[in-house]
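JOB MANIFEST
job_type = single_chain_structure
chain_count = 1
residues = 256
[input]
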Amino acid sequence: MDVSAEHIDRFFKDLPFFKGMDEADISDFIKKSNLKKYSKNQVVFLHGDKAEKFFIVFNGWIKLHRETPEGEEAVIGLLTRGDMFGDAAIFCEAKYPFSAHCAEETQLIEIPTYFLREKGKSHPEVMENLLSMMCHDMKSVRLENEHMALMSTPQRVGCLLLQLSSGMVGKGGTFSFPYDKSLAAIRLGMKPETFSRALVQLRPFGVSVKGSEITIDSFETLVEYTCSHCSATPGECRRADHCNADCPKKKLCSAA
């Protein structure tokens, strides 16, 4: 897909990371960045590689993971449009603390390490935004630990479905699972068969599955079942960010 300069410019300006920056500074970032296409399963970098680039997902899905000496894989993140990774690039001579592969065909915006460090030295807001991004990542880890402690397996899967459908409007809807369900299972720390059973257990709450297609009859019903066991507020949860005024999650967030 060919991407126009205007589209790239709008994409950068819509990212929270660049909010508050001068037009000239954003323009500098755009000039130094490179939009690169990756195929499904292609390696972006491996754990221990020198951190030479900072990445922004333009479209597609990225899998962040680590492996044990015996080859067991731990998926530590699944990122999509607007998400950033590779913040180890702010440290001189740093190495990536995980590997990154493309879960689907993906386009990444790549920014050189040296430029990010230079901007960070002369523009405090760049470092502040990087620290804010790291803080958000830490909150996500806290929420994951909370979910494992307080939510049932079907509720955790329901939470994932709500995140994946967060940009949809209306009472309910159908969407295609954007990557392999087995990858989602690994990300949630469960076996693929456990993930499949959880999808079946969500049927009473209006969730149905046909191949890669997921139908949620009522977002409100699934939110009521899932989100009362989660302390996430807008800014920490994609679904909460997109809730309408009558959504139970919005009411829960307001009371938090």
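[summary]
The CA atoms of residues 35 and 109 lie 4 Å apart.
The longest strand covers residues 53-59.
exit_status = 0
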